[in-house]
Amino acid sequence: MNMTNATRDLMAIYVMWLREMKRLVRAKSRFLSSLVMPLMFLAFLGSGFREVNFFGTSYISFLTPGIAGMAVIFSSTFAGLSVLWDREFGFLKEIAVAPVRNVAVVCGRIAGSATTSILQAMAILVLAIPLGFSTKPQGVLLSIPFIVLMAVTFTGMGLFFAAIIKDFHGFGLVMNFVIFPLFFLSGAIFPVSNLPSFLVPLAYFNPLFYGVDGLRGVLTGRGATNPIIDLSALVVFSIVTVFAGAKMFDRL
Amino acid sequence: MHAVIAEDISKSYDGIQALRGVTFRVKKGEVFGLLGPNGAGKTTLTAILTTLLKADSGYAEVAGFSVEEKLKVRERIGVVFQEPALDTKLTARENLEFHAMLYGMPKKEREEKIEKGLELVGLRNWADTLVEKFSGGMKRRLEMARAFIHRPEVLFLDEPTLGLDVQTRRNIWKYIRKLRDEGVTVFMTTHYIEEAEKLCDTVAIMDRGKIVKIGRVEDLKRGLGEDTIYVEFFGKVMEEELNTLRELDGVKEVLASDTTVMILTSNGDRIIPQLFSVLSEGRVKAVRMKTPDLEDVFVRLTGRRIAD
């Protein structure tokens, strides 16, 4: 009762993060099955298009950062949307009457989802190695800030859309009209420059584009844009979406 | 001193006026019951007092702070909602643990209070079971434990025994009394007459967004002033017997039908002993008294029954 606001906020962040971790550990099979789709993309696209050469590297090297980015956008957006489950099961009310600020609760959720994303992306990078992917250890380390910023951005986005769609029926809408368009406009499976020229500018408003390009830059040294620019763009996107998500959180 | 103060609170949404100028005070340390039918505005009022909803107008104060000061109020209250608000993917202990952390309790105190809380609501053997395996009654008991684990000054319970079996209901009543004895102020809503009568010190009767009557349970019932005594006679009732009864102090009305007399009075328990001294021996066959309950009070005030 005599904690300062700052320690209280930190505690709330920690509690929300710890909650995600407990749930993650308990649902190991769900975590593993979330790797299945990205691995199928890697295995089938990687072998089916092995003669394709983008940016002067093997297709699997081009594709792997893209698929890691795909795993992050899916899991983070759903982590954001999962607040709808909490509302359905009432837990959101418990948080609503707790003496903590919304922004701390949102940050805690994001911290949990970012941790999950890092684990997923790392698993994908490792599992891509037998498929022909190669990178240096420092590349893997440098990829972490990109993964975290993507996770922050898309969890914030998920919270934002949770407040808009209001119930699970909207899941499909977010999937079809938000996640997939962002994915195809990100350069994850082919360079954005191959798109019809009128679509190319759209990529520059797509956080996943900067995420995938940044990952590609640090992991394989073959990005379309300087990783520093990618990182800066992601910082801007993450700030905007976190605020938008926290603002909309009030309406849930 | 008052634990809750509400002054002229109004709230409407979707074009419906849920609260129409609600005013009342809850004394520190009492069990205060808000009694009324579904749709009376009880849950809306609870949401405003627990800082979840903003009133359109009026003033509310809880545990010494205006509800505008959300965090200050929140750290001093405990809430059990009508619908379960647990994380079913966590164990009972984890639900309590996370709650205690959010309320800033130090680790040692947390462990101690969690054990005590689980013990009190009889869930010690289930502490490490996932809540999704719990029955409705167990969930409610766990929520009760959670709501007072951080030692709130005021405990808000929205229909705490709704849909529970008799056994669990009695247990919940027991916990509420225990908390009251420890000095916690309890603010609860209910539409069960029995619950309000047995548990609450003060009852506010609410109907259609307004408080229509407020007072101590006995006072409310006495205010109605009508115990009904049924006296059954051996043989036909005689006119002079009726007159004798009418002259007793506190008798309002005496009605007779063949061998039975119905006496309306404000103090039935005083009238009954006198019957035997004013009537000749061997006349009275049976005596039965019905005191009004809060349902009668509600009917008198609104013309409807609570259960409707």
What does this structure look like?
The complex is a heterodimer of chains A (252) and B (308). Helix content of chain A is 75%, strand content 0%. Chain A has helices at 5-26, 28-48, 59-81, 83-88, 91-96, 102-128, 137-165, 171-184, 200-203, 207-220, 227-249. Chain A has eleven helices and no strands. Chain A has 252 residues and is mainly α. Chain A is globular. The longest helix of chain A has 29 residues, at 137-165. Chain A has one domain. The mean pLDDT of chain A is 92. Chain B has 308 residues and is an alpha/beta fold. Chain B is 36% helix and 30% strand. Chain B has eleven helices and 14 strands. Chain B has helices spanning 42-49, 70-74, 92-102, 107-120, 136-148, 166-181, 193-199, 217-224, 239-246, 268-278, 294-302; strands at residues 2-13, 16-27, 31-35, 57-62, 65-66, 77-80, 154-158, 185-190, 202-207, 210-216, 227-233, 251-257, 260-265, 284-290. In chain B, the strands form three sheets. Chain B has a six-stranded mixed sheet with strand order 6-7-8-3-9-10, with helices on both faces. In chain B, strands 2-1-4-5 form a four-stranded antiparallel sheet. In chain B, strand 4 (57-62) and strand 5 form a beta hairpin. The model of chain B has no long low-confidence stretch (mean pLDDT 91). Classes of the chains: A mainly alpha (252), B alpha/beta (308). Chains A and B meet through helix 1 and helix 5 of A and helix 3 of B.
Could you give a short description of this structure?
The complex is a heterodimer of chains A (252) and B (308). Chain A has 252 residues and is an all-alpha fold.
